[in-house]
């Protein structure tokens, strides 16, 4: 069992796969079964499946789920 990665809108990711423009850093614009990520270098956004994206992540540079700008936690 592998833990699903916690990814949030606004996260900055460094992927193994680079955009044709050469950028390797991406911002998460939309989460779900499919993610939309924006290339930080040229500003283009692409759709990518969660499975594929998780495999491509080299490093999470900024996580909205971390200490930085963490959303308020609520017990549900
Ligand atoms: Zn690009």
Brief descriptors of the model:
five-stranded antiparallel β-sheet; 76 residues; mainly beta; single chain; binds zinc ion; 36% strand
What does this structure look like?
This protein is mainly beta and 76 residues long. The model has no long low-confidence stretch (mean pLDDT 88). The chain has a domain at 12-62. The chain is built from 1 helix and 5 strands. The two termini are 25 Å apart. 13% of the residues are buried. Strands 4-3-2-1-5 form a 5-stranded antiparallel sheet, covered by helices on one side. It is 9% helix and 36% strand. Zinc ion (ZN) binds at residues 19, 21, 23, 39, 41-42, 44.
The count of strands amounts to 5
The biggest beta sheet, please? 5 strands, antiparallel
Order of helices and strands: EEEEHE
Tally of helical segments? 1
β content, as a range?
35-45%
Q: How would you summarize the topology of this molecule?
A:
Layout: E1 12-15, E2 25-30, E3 34-39, E4 45-49, H1 50-56, E5 57-62
Antiparallel strand pairs: 1-2, 1-5, 2-3, 3-4
The structure holds zinc ion (ZN).
In short:
The chain is mainly beta. It is built from 1 helix and 5 strands; from the N terminus they run ββββαβ. The protein has a 5-stranded antiparallel beta sheet with strand order 4-3-2-1-5, with helices on one face.
